[in-house]
Fold these 4 entries.
Entry 1:
Amino acid sequence: MAKHITNREQDYSQWYLDIVKEAKLADHSPVRGCMVIRPNGFALWENMKEALDSMFKETGHQNAYFPLFIPKSFLSKEAQHVEGFAKECAVVTHSRLKSVDGGVEVDPESRLDEELIVRPTSETIIWDSYRNWIQSYRDLPILINQWANVVRWEMRTRLFLRTMEFLWQEGHTAHASEKEAVEETLQMLNVYKTFAEDYMAMPVITGVKTASERFAGAVDTYCIEALMQDGKALQAGTSHFLGQNFAKAFDVKFQDKDGEHKYVWATSWGVSTRLIGGLIMTHSDDQGLVLPPKLAPTQVIIVPIYRNDEQRAEVLDYADPLINELRDFGVRVKIDDNDNTKPGFKFAQYEAEGVPLRVGIGPRDVKNQNLELARRDTLEKNIISRKGAAEHISSLLETIQNDLFESAKKRRDEMTAIVDDYETFKKEIEKGGFIYAHWDGTDETENKIKEETKATIRCIPFDNDLTETGKCIVTGKPSERRVLFAKAY
């Protein structure tokens, strides 16, 4: 265990905060509930953003940008939407300050005619634009994504997992038919699943939310749910079928091929910097952060080991061709030849920061034409030949990526139970993990379980293996399929 990182078994919450600190991902800011994302954390977010952005564009989406401020009246146009976000909104009431006795205060004469809401999400401001963009079926579909920040006035915050301001992407699409909009919703859910599993090495379960858990203003909300090492679930991404709710609220119609005017159909979907929290809690250990190679800002760190200038020159000359060869393989590699820091300190630093592979090179390695490799995920070390090293390292990074996914999946499966009665459910949920159980489909039963156990229905999974009929664990009423329960972040 690293010196400054709390043991997970001792205090999981503190372990998480220690990882964020020691890996230099983020700091608390002077503004309560907000964070400063440090270069290591932002580089990780940039890699996530780059991969997702490419996937969005491959599915026909374009990026745009909409205002940070939303007129208050816009939020009142869709009743469910405003009710869902009313308690989380930051409101701008004045436009300037004035100097008073060496300080500043709000100028009462600058009060706005209409208050502005700092966006908690952008459906309303975007649909106001869509009203101007859409006249005919020829204007559809509109497939827009926005990379932005949003503000939700959270009372209890935790770095990355829940902050008042966070970074995210939000997709907003408009379609001519219900079928096309539903297909879009499910397509983007699958994009999120692919990203989570192929890039984050984080296994997820896909499904639809219950009515009480769906997005404010949506007809249906679909999600990907992941299980963290402490047995709590993390909602890692959502995709919403909005029906015609926002089109009707903002009077967005199109003329179809028959000349008939109809309301358009809508979707929205998003993931945020919360994914970094999910990444931390899926893979990291008591030594620090563990990163999957596909997302790691630095995939390979080379640490030269020497005692004098002559050895230093010899080692660096040996390392230079390797760096070029690795870059030819597309590997993100760096060398740390800082003379002011000892190799042992560097080893600990890069372990804490989660660099997937460390290459140590000393005079003996130069003499023997070898390299020392250290895997971050398993902490295993081994000696390899310099000949063919770049290809070996490139292949090993793929192995690490796959091993991280398989390890996380194995852990999730071991922490998943199938339960048929309420007493067993209450015992199992205290252990943490996913539970598949029957539910009678009523809000009353869902709320009772939540109040008594703090577990929520994470989703009604798509998995066909769960469609067997049974009886609700609480009421004994008929149930057509099992649903997924867990305590959650």
Note: The chain has three domains: 12-92+107-283, 300-399, 416-486.
Entry 2:
Amino acid sequence: MTDDAMELDPHGDLVVRHAVEGGVATVVVAGEIDSHSAPRLEETLLSLVEGGANRLVLDLGGVGFIDSSGLRVLIATRKRLGDDADALVLRHPTQGTLRLLEMTGLTEQFSLA
């Protein structure tokens, strides 16, 4: 892997680790994605895309809570990556995350693994 980093949200509610290999960035997210922590996640994802990642794999297995702010980040990132349905993969989404995606009709917008 060519890059490996970990970032902690200033409020301490979110941990974001990422590694990049080629054009694929794997991002492991743990904690809560809400209005306080979503900007940190968005900044990380945007930085990865601007740095040349053309595919993002988000491991959400450690996300205990996600609100509309988190959904907005996922949608914006998906749009930034273009039309390829596999450009943004949500890996190991928790039951709560899956339920929110289903309730909002967004399961079709993301590849789930």
Note: The chain is about 30% helix and 35% strand.
Entry 3:
Amino acid sequence: MYTNSFAEHVREAVRQIPKGETRTYGEVARTIGHPGAARAVGTVMKNNYDPTVPCHRVVRSDGKIGDYNRGGRERKEALLREEGALR
């Protein structure tokens, strides 16, 4: 399993995603130097409840929004629309 430092690197990378933009799980993994770790990034996001980490800005590579542990897909979509990341 990945260490706490891996999870913190993921959380810090996600904190850097600007409002109104998204990144895929794979892009976040590449950003932190672990290009094959998209699923692990998803696991970190699934277990993240830190309000300073905008995990709703991380989406799937197939263009789908994906799940959201703080209210489901509908809530994630609403947040992305509010921020201007979705039209």
Note: The beta strands are 23-24, 58-59.
Entry 4:
Amino acid sequence: MSIKPKPKTDKAAAFIAGAPDAGTSNPKLAGKSEVYEKGIAKGNKRQITLTIAPDLLRRVDEVAKRTGQARAAVINMAVYRALEGDIFQS
């Protein structure tokens, strides 16, 4: 007898595919080049250097700790929401 993992449901797959870093399944990236060479390749992401004010970093770290997320995840979500929202719309 072997233990087999529970198969992913369509609902779970749709949730994962809808993530900001899901890659090609994001409809807002349709028609855009899949390869972006800036930064250092780290899996399906790119590593960059970010300079941030100490007070802002403290606030990011507080949110990360409170929500149980990594600092990078909080920053990624904030950037994603800023770009997808109306902050930078012209």
Note: The longest helix spans residues 54-67.
